[in-house]
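We emphasize that the prediction below concerns an isolated chain of 180 residues; any contacts that depend on oligomerization or on bound cofactors are therefore not represented. The input was used exactly as deposited, without trimming of termini.
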Amino acid sequence: MNFEEFDAQFDRFTTEVFRLENLQGYAVSEEDARLKAFRDGTPRPERSVRTEPWLARIAVSTVAGKRWERVHVVDHPLSEYLRYELVGYVESQAAGERILIAERTADESLTRLGEDFWLFDADSPTAYAVLMHYDEAGHFVGFDHTTEPAVLERCRNERELVRRHAVDLNAYLAEQKEDL
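Result of the prediction step, given as a token string:
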């Protein structure tokens, strides 16, 4: 699967897409300017449905009745990247994505999660997942598309596990305001 094929998955799904994020930082060169602005305490470039095709895609598909959900499993103290990303999640949430945060210490089983993944139409006969691969520094190195029943079951089980231990982004931000 190449990047264009991966990107097309977000136009193909019919009911819901779920994202599990386990890393405490991602090395994404496209975010460098926004991360620098966050680090320097200066205004960040606008990121909205008007300026970001990704957010526009979320907004259009949620209006059409599709669901987007993301759970990020975090460690404390929060890394600089996570503090930055939490601010960005507010923008994704405004576009229609449901964002949840799970603290890894909430349950020992959260320490045994597999790699990051996207799970598409999880409860349908056409379910599939895209497993995301990163190096030690958080650089994206590739992905694998799968319909393998055992892998889909693992992804579904991990989705349910993290949901049980997660809180809504707004509740998390209100509780953690000193750490941000």
